[in-house]
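WP5 quarterly update. Target: Helix-turn-helix domain-containing protein. Source organism: Nonomuraea jiangxiensis. Length: 353 aa.
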Amino acid sequence: MPLPDPLQPGENPLLASVIAFGEEEVVGLLRIHFTADDLARTTMAAAADPLWEVVLSRFRLRDRDKALAYRSWERGLRRSPERVARMGAGVRWLMALAPEGPYFPDFLTPEAARDGLEAGLSALRSTPRRRFRWELGWLARYAPVAGWVGGLGDGEVTSVEGLATALSDYYGAAIAPHGEHIRAAVEADRAWRVGHLLSGGVEALLNGLRPTMRWRPPVLEVDYTLDRDLHLHGRGLRLVPSYFCRRVPVALADPELSPVLVYPIDAAFRWTPGTRAPGSLEALVGDSRAAVLQAARGGATTTELARRAGVSIAAASRHAKVLREAGLVRSVRRGPAVLHLLTPLGTGLLEPS
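Structure tokens (predicted):
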């Protein structure tokens, strides 16, 4: 499948990054073709994928029009020279392997990372030499590949270990300190989408992925950076929520790999600073309100809050309003119901220090 010409490099090499499949200007459409077996085998990841977040967060450092949630994250990095220094090797690898253009190697985001960072890095270390070589060759079609990267294709242990260590250090400096915010935001988005799944099945889940995706049975149309067709052939599709995926979803480049679609969580669930109303935290007293806050774990409608907390619907609505003003709960209207979800601040308040 031919790819478009690579984009021009950014002005500042320190902030340059890749525009991965689906990461910038929408000029095409990814058409994902489902069969009945694919619908039955479609799943949703329980959490964000750590290595996808590493790659996608690097893109966010390049953004000139940063969303509010990312501005807070980047400011935190700039205020910590130690964290920036620890990211250095990872940034250098990512600049080399994911330069400006429509492609980055799939070996950066192995399927095993679904089980955590260490599992993903272990899989990266075990990548066959031929796969390193093949994907680096594919990358070279669209951007020059630095000579020092070639050790991967030669199977040099020091190069492979250097990449794995650099990505681990990058994660520890750039992602892990923000981990609670990411986890809470992703959990909120996932709870909302699981609600679609439970109420209407996989097709309701796919219908709920608008506006960047549209379910037109038996095809899921995805806004993308190029025109592409992906036939699932009974393998199903794994949907992976991402905090750092911003504009449109991203898929693996190799159609022979297990199909994955990484999608940006709904903007309503991203944490942003400055949402607390003055004096509202002081209003958070009493067992009933604490019970309503606890009941919002995993997401709940007003009726569900009332049932879980043992209060009337009217009382649950009043408590949810105070919690929302305090920045502890986010309320999102979806159809006739209002879904209440914990913010990272609310999650942190419930969890022991």
